[in-house]
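Hi Y.,

Following your request, here is the sequence exactly as I used it, all 322 residues.
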Amino acid sequence: MSDAILSIVTDLVREAAHPLTGAGADYDPLLEFIGDARLVLLGEASHGTHEFYRQRAQITKRLIEEKGFSVVAVEADWPDAYRVNRYVRGATTDSDAAEALAGFTRFPAWMWRNADVLDFIGWLRSYNDSLAEGTIRTGFYGLDLYSLRASIEAVLNYLEKVDPIGAERARHRYACFEHFGADPQEYGYAAGLGLSHTCESEVIAQLIELQRRAAEYARRDGRIAADDFFYAEQNARLVKNAEQYYRTMFLGRISSWNLRDAHMAETLQSLLGHFELLGRRAKVAVWAHNSHLGDARATQMGQSGEWNVGQLVRQEYGRECN
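Below is the corresponding structure, written out as tokens. Let me know if you'd prefer a different format.
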């Protein structure tokens, strides 16, 4: 790049830049730009970096307080994040934010078990506790699909409470994975290369059965039952998608990347749909790496055949997304 072009670019950036001074009004222009958007995608250039996480938390607090956002959806595993969700909504036995975050044990644990997330979770619990009875509490949800084993356990635990016979059928189906130990990558390697039978039909059958019995399960205890079923259904869907993901990860980066981001976008849609069924128009702040939240169509990713959450969400929601 020539010195003249570099100078022009520098001047343009300087004119457009808004300096952060630490004052409360730093993000006023950003909040004005967001307007009434339903989804706000808040990226990061590197996982766990204090500066990115702190500023993202500050923006999210304002979205919650000033614009009525009631969902924080993060690049994290569904069961681990749902434990945090229960804590921030006051529906848990965890005594504090650190205990609520203890479920994040898979590498990289520091991605979510760090001081900035700890502070935000503590703030969110205090904010929710300060709201009047009957006011919508903001929740915390995971979008990722690495928790195959934990999600299987979550489905079984749910069915043991509502349908013990159904739990036995589910246990029989999920036993397909028992030959491969605790690491789902072992299953992916063997099944993806045709060295063993796949568990595809079993996980699809389990999700279909759970969905077919949704009305029966949801009638039991009203709203609580609806939330519990939604949690279980998402875990069953995660198992189905994770099975496919691990089976394809040894066949090529593009196919496994696309499966993962499609799952995250699908989970976002499911969250919005769930709250609509409960009579709520949820607004969502999404936390993930820039590679997931930028628009793949504008990058080399798109040229190589990859898509990402940012592209899929923008295609689905258009101007409702920022």
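The chain has a mean pLDDT of 93.

Thanks again,
Q.
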